[in-house]
């Protein structure tokens, strides 16, 4: 797996192709905005019935990242479920799968704006986590050295003969925002409000994909 | 028409200007003149909103002159909602509408009351509707109406077509007979190629060389319609025409990407006779009476003889005078195509391709519409649907799969049993589980696919938008780039709130905006004529410059030959290019492009994309193809066909259209787009998920069917390979050839997302690192 290593507020971090963040010194894997159960929620309110496979697709990726990194610690950075109570409605297979992933690992669910935390599942439930120099929470605040999610940042880059658009990490001196990890998630261009106003002028976007690559936000279209 | 007033179904075929619309209404006027009919009597359906209001004007004249007690109203997406409500409570005698508005009407619970007493339905421009899903949807709606009013009589009004019986089968209630009335086709058109002092260029689609000659023709005629095949070409031509228009003749432009207000202004000016010429696209193809047109000029190859004949009919609305038309080839290849088309028109050799059974995504939408109107019985709905011409061959299993999709999503994984969209009641009837979902279903009625477009406005000034451009094109712009819209060169200033802001910038050479207008494929018959002309070596009918160009091609490379396949390779634009002259038609060439790029990706040749025309496919990539022969192993290619479904842009585009029509993806309406768009995942994700977990899902089947019918045309590819039988002529050159040059200006380039994209991304990153010293920066 090709990753992109970078320094953030004194921590050496690694951006994974999937949109996960790995902190080798701490053996920590961070993923944000899993949005499990999105298709179920949409159909419950009378909307379209999307292919009901996003939970297993997301779990498959998560399992692969945990195996590849050997993470002993996992933080789900909020909006792990698409709505309150969906954790209880999770199919039994998927629930067992999550339990299997949790076995032997320190697992933390951070509260999101869609879910206050999947209380029916094991693991620790917290509003935020401090670890070394960094603080982890769902929505960015004014604090420095903060790792957050919520906005589903996406980057668009003009290439020879076309453009390419991918979910991305956003990082500047104070702040790191993770892309959405879930299978059924759209994105917000980092050139649009509020993302464009949140980051410093020298912010970098790290594009996800087979080889994560850093691009100055100023160079994006 | 009066003689046949009682027939259950009639198709009237007449050239433009034959007064056929009024003829279609004659029985209605006669029946209503007798008085005593309460409520709706006749429904008129046309593909264009503008046509409905135009017909209303024309109908009101005889009605008012004769003092008939007949109420005529139109109803389209633009009708105010207060009037729409009143029309449902108190319908007029004659209602003029569009297929989408009619489908919406049939979705209301009170539809049986509104349509009670309906006697006749008149379908205008049925030849155009019969070629699209809009027509399929309309026929399903008529089947619904026929249930409500068993005595309903149908009349279809059609321009000249090659197969009137197919139109008749399309219109009539299956298996009822349908009468075909052929009006006198009138005198042969007066049609020729426009003679110019200057020869057309070797490539390009602008036809700028012909501007002086076209202006001269405009001066000599009262009103000239100047047709183009694409909106981009219309823009460029209009721009150049104005630069040369020293006498400032009033000339307007009209195409589907222009703001509605601007289009209406042009239409009104034209009806008043204020304009001497209108540069236009297919948006003026349908039969609105635009005043006294006495000349039609077709810029660019006509692609399809039938459509050419219909366009020519727009000139001269007097029945007995020949229509006058001039063809202007935009480049030398098109000279060949124009000459072939002229021969075909003279021989009355119209072309056309059968359309096959009605597509099932439209069927899914219709089931949801039926559920909105009230609980239904599956058997009855199936019987009703198979009475629609396009769906006469629908099997019960095919119907059941659609019903299942509408009810539960139809997934192999039974996930939605508790949240079904439709559920079966204990008495066996189907109904919406949640009645509120009717609102969402109604918002998504229709089969017209909008591409994602962005409005273009002047920066720092209010006022109406100039028009729209495709989002993909907007994404490729960087501030300072210039492009053409509404006949003006504008400079891209930036994107704000999903509006493209531009400033004025005359004088710089503009980029060519891509608009997703209808792109016609050259018909099989026309392609065959062209190939025969190449093969004959008798180029007497061609102008000297074109014959010379073909000779040049033979000298530099060679001309495509029967029973052989010509493949050229050369570097151009910093990439390695390969051109395959298959003459298999646009769709098969497109498939060839898909399959070849897949093989090339496997062989590590890093293809980046391709573009296809009716006669050739151009593929570009990072590495040169030195031995093309192994690429054309048919078995290998065919084996790749299934794999290839695994993720190319064309399939995803097809999936997106079908999934939207079938109701899996909801269109975003009104202000929703602005706020909700960012959070919406792309349909590509759904496609990838289904491919991985549920590849036999109904929508994947429909996507394959659609692609097989429309975009793949594998039969012609197989036929081409059989014809060639491995006789491949590879010509490696150091520069582009005369015959290949036009391909570089073709719109509709399909990107290949493979290793080349990663390589380019790395290239760009390396450049960025070097440019900015980024490698040294740590945040």
From TrEMBL, chain A:
GO terms for molecular function: ligase activity. Keywords: Ligase. InterPro entries: Metallo-depent_PP-like (IPR029052), PdeM-like (IPR026336), Pesterase_MJ0037-like (IPR024173). The keyword Ligase applies. NCBIfam families: P_estr_lig_assc. This is Metallophosphoesterase, DNA ligase-associated. It comes from Tropicibacter naphthalenivorans.
TrEMBL record, chain B:
GO terms for molecular function: ATP binding; ATP hydrolysis activity; DNA binding; DNA helicase activity. InterPro entries: ATP-dep_Helicase, DEAD/DEAH_box_helicase_dom, DEXH_lig_assoc, Helicase_ATP-bd, Helicase_C-like, Lhr-like, Lhr-like_DEAD/DEAH_assoc, Lhr_WH_dom. Belongs to the Lhr helicase family. Lhr-Core subfamily. Keywords: ATP-binding, DNA damage, DNA repair, DNA-binding, Helicase, Hydrolase, Isomerase, Nucleotide-binding. SMART domains: DEXDc, HELICc. The gene is recQ_1. GO terms for biological process: DNA repair. The keyword Hydrolase applies. Residues 72-92 are annotated as: Disordered. Residues 210-363 form the Helicase C-terminal domain. This is ATP-dependent DNA helicase RecQ. The keyword Isomerase applies. Its EC number is 3.6.4.12. Residues 1-179 form the Helicase ATP-binding domain.
